[in-house]
Amino acid sequence: MSSNESQFDYNDRYGLKPSKTWIRYASLIAFAGVAWILWAGLHHSNPEIRVNLISFITQDPRTPEIRYSIERRDGSQEIVCTLAARDIEKNIVGQIDDTIPAGDTYIERSIKIPTRADAVNAGITRCRIR
Q1: Tens digit of pLDDT for each residue in 72-115?
Q2: CA-based nearest residue to 127, from 116, 114, 109
Q3: Which residues cross the membrane (predicted)?
């Protein structure tokens, strides 16, 4: 064998060609992944309910006041928001469910949360459609 010739290869001798089926599977998985990412981005960018904490006031630590806004896609739905007040160690010392009746799609609310101990902050735990 001369030095110019390539190394002996059984694939060339017996006519075997390397399989490229992995490219087909990889492209199928990539297409499914991109489709899922597009769906997830579009689905979660426009939720049923958007809730924003505007402020909370703890002048009276036993009844902190929370101000928040709610934006809903469908004004005919009733919403229940769980509001919580926490102490310095982040324990929940007061919690109420605020029911927002059907009506406007954008609402701002100001609610006082009664507590069993002194609260240092307040927040929105979650909002859900009833």
Answers
A1: 988 888 999 999 999 999 999 999 999 999 888 999 999 999 99
A2: 109
A3: 22-42
CB 67 within 8 A of CB 75: no
Those residues whose C-beta lies under 8 Å from the C-beta of residue 85, and which sit 6 or more positions away, are 64, 92, 93, 94, 95, 113, 115, 119, 121, 122
Closest listed residue to residue 71, CA positions, set 29, 97, 103 = 103
Instruction: Give the total number of structural domains in the chain.
Output: 2
Asked whether residue 2 is domain-assigned, the answer is: no
The residue segments making up the domain with residue 105 are: 49-129
Question: Residue 47 carries which side chain, given as an amino acid letter?
Answer: P
Task: Name the pLDDT band for 10 (thresholds 50, 70, 90).
Answer: confident
Local confidence band at 5 (pLDDT 50, 70, 90 cut-offs) = low
Q: Tell how strand 121-129 and strand 49-57 pair up.
A: unpaired
